[in-house]
Amino acid sequence: xxxxxxxxxxxxxxxxxxxxxxxxxxxxxxxxxxxxxxxxxxxxxxxxxxxxxxxxxxxxxxxxxxxxxxxxxxxxxxxxxxxxxxxxxxxxxxxxxxxxxxxxxxxxxxxxxxxxxxxxxxxxxxxxxxxxxxxxxxxx
Length: 140
Fold this sequence. Notes:
The longest helix has 17 residues, at 64-80. By secondary structure, this protein is an alpha+beta fold. The protein is globular, with a radius of gyration of 14 Å. The chain has helices at residues 8-16, 37-44, 64-80, 110-119, and strands at 18-21, 27-28, 49-52, 85-91, 100-106, 124-128, 134-138. It starts with 7 loop residues before the first helix and ends with a strand. A hairpin with an 8-residue loop joins β4 and β5 (100-106). A seven-stranded antiparallel beta sheet has the order 2-1-4-5-3-6-7.
């Protein structure tokens, strides 16, 4: 694992999280290939995607209404920038951390995802490349 300011329990939580997508019967799991991405890649003519949230900046739990406002602002910013996405919801299967509203942005590569994640004060983002394997990209 790369050097990071994030504590090991938090890193473990990221790996346990299931990165769900609305209206899909599949989800993303870190380091596990997700072949169900292929038709979406083809439909959007892309070779990558990034899973982003604006919720709970730097791991600080915010009230639901503030997270909802941040996600609305993120979606507005993505729309203004011309991105398309699929809404999702990341959740901890053990229930130790509340679920987070999220988006899977089609065609967003790692460097761009890093910039968006940093802009929204996130600890990490999840990036999927041509191999359709979701990988955690640490920002701290």
